[in-house]
Write a structure and sequence with these properties.
The protein is an alpha/beta fold. The chain has one domain: 3-Layer(aba) Sandwich (Peroxisomal Thiolase, Chain A, domain 1), CATH 3.40.47. Helix content is 40%, strand content 18%. The protein contains 18 helices and 16 strands. The protein has helices at 5-24, 56-64, 81-88, 99-109, 124-140, 144-148, 161-165, 167-173, 175-182, 186-195, 210-223, 241-250, 259-262, 287-292, 321-336, 354-365, 378-381, 388-402; strands at residues 27-30, 41-50, 71-72, 93-94, 151-155, 201-202, 229-237, 277-286, 299-308, 345-347, 373-375, 404-405, 421-422, 427-428, 433-440, 444-451. Strands 1, 2, 5, 6, 7, 8, 9, 10, 11, 13, 15 and 16 form a twelve-stranded mixed sheet that branches. Helix 16 links the parallel strand 10 and strand 11 (373-375). It is globular.
């Protein structure tokens, strides 16, 4: 019997609620319409920040080169360093962004914003988000007047942990700091303040599927006419001793001594992931609006499927049934829009944990031809948790732009139980369409189909 019976009771209640809701509410979204293409949802700008690079191009170049940002963390980069080392039985590792360089780049991009949020921009997670926001808005050619009418869908998997550490200090004495940095919707409100956006606003919190679900929600706001432009994305900065210790206890962190080669998605020697941090932001618009602004879209968001897995709070159905059903719903959405869809490439979630990789591989192999290439980037970027879906969605779009399937870093020999086509090397392909998958604790499973019908 637990020495905290209330915790056991809470777990049981939450599990049952999740099972009830997860079992009956699959969702299909269609964002394209061949009969009325002016209403299509398109991507016109994107920005990416990771430990590989503080821009989309820099991150992409290093992913394609097969590099990894995983490294040992210094004492000054994470609290409780020695305690973590004792717990993990190795030097703590992760994919961490250099804070000094990050602050310098944010200072450079600040003039791009119509408004300022000085308190919020002291937080590392918000800095990553602000930098990717500036890149996305710049690529989309948005001015301050156009930004004012935009909607915002920006999420994260949890509150800023840097802010959490300061709750007993400045945050409790300064309510503004508490609101700007600690509350879960702080990143959303910072984006609103920086851009002056006054459209519909949402803050998804869906664990590691948060980033992709932000894209889905933003596209739906446009498709239903609630907004003609939407800023979407997510950020996460979870290289924190509490998170690392918790994931270690769950058995999902890799036990390898070298963080750079530790995360091996779909490999027969995989044993978990390495935590990373980052952010990605996209500008979504109706095709009509993009055409009016004379902006060439990056890609079209065709459809999406979204449902939840009732297996457990941190478990997934290893049979692949839920993953398969989610993809089928996305394909169904494409058909409803008059689009016959079989993706040329799949960007997998690929956590390099046994259950997740099996679920994805089994779900995909039953639906797709064996020659469809799949790739995962967590071996290069680390697992970005709440930012994983958005960053990986951005890298999927870049694969389409460059006609290049990036390598799955650290992948050497595919697990025989994972019967999907994963390549350890970059491959040139004519990529006209792609599928992005994201999964998260709590049973979140999402799939988005995109194409280059621009």
């Amino acid at each position: 019997m637990s020495d905290r019976p209330w915790l056991s009771a809470q777990y049981i209640v939450r599990s049952q609620i999740i099972r009830l809701f997860n079992a009956g509410f699959p969702v299909v979204f269609s964002f394209a319409d061949n009969d009325a293409p002016e209403t299509d949802v398109v991507v016109t700008g994107m920005g990416i920040v990771t430990a590989l690079g503080l821009s989309a191009d820099e991150t992409w170049a290093r992913v394609v080169a097969g590099e990894s940002s995983g490294r040992a963390l210094r004492n000054d980069e994470i609290d409780c360093h020695n305690d973590l080392q004792d717990l993990l039985r190795r030097v703590p590792g992760g994919c961490r962004i250099d804070r000094r360089v990050l602050m310098e780049q944010v200072a450079i991009c600040e003039p791009a914003f119509p408004q300022q949020a000085p308190e919020a921009l002291r937080d590392p997670m918000n800095q990553m988000l602000a930098l990717s926001l500036a890149e996305a808005v710049g690529q989309a050619g948005m001015n301050s007047e156009q930004l004012m009418s935009a909607g915002c869908v920006v999420g994260t998997s949890k509150s800023s942990l840097a802010a959490l550490d300061s709750v007993g200090q400045s945050a409790t004495r300064d309510p503004q700091v508490f609101r700007d940095q600690f509350l879960p919707d702080a990143p959303l409100r910072m984006v609103q303040r920086l851009t002056g956006a006054r459209g519909p606003a949402l803050c998804p919190v869906a664990a590691c599927a948060t980033g992709l679900i932000s894209v889905i929600h933003g596209a739906e706001l446009i498709r239903t006419g609630q907004a003609n432009c939407c800023i979407v994305g997510s950020a996460d900065a979870s290289l924190h001793p509490a998170v690392m210790a918790s994931f270690h206890r769950l058995g999902v962190l890799s036990r390898q001594s070298d963080p750079g080669t530790a995360c091996r998605p779909f490999d027969q020697n995989r044993d978990g992931f390495v935590i990373g941090e980052g952010a990605a932001v996209f500008v979504l618009e109706s095709r009509r609006r993009a055409k009016h602004r004379d902006i060439r879209p990056i890609a079209r968001v065709v459809s999406a499927g979204w449902q939840t897995d009732p297996t457990g709070l941190t478990q997934i159905d290893q049979s692949g049934r839920i993953v398969r059903g989610t993809i089928q719903r996305a394909v169904e959405g494409a058909r409803n829009a008059g689009v016959s869809f079989c993706p040329d490439v799949v960007s997998v979630h690929g956590t390099a944990t046994e259950s997740n990789d099996l679920a994805e591989a089994r779900g995909l192999s039953e639906l797709l031809p064996s020659d469809v290439l799949c790739f995962g980037v967590k071996g290069a970027t680390g697992h970005l948790l709440g930012a994983a879906g958005s960053v990986e969605f951005g890298l999927t779009l870049m694969a389409m732009q460059h006609g290049l399937v990036p390598p799955t870093a650290n992948h050497q020999a595919t697990d025989p139980q994972c019967s999907i086509n994963v390549s350890p090397n970059a491959e040139l392909r004519d990529i006209r369409s792609a599928l992005k998958l994201s999964l998260g604790f709590g049973g979140q499973v999402a799939a988005v189909l995109v194409d280059d019908a621009c």
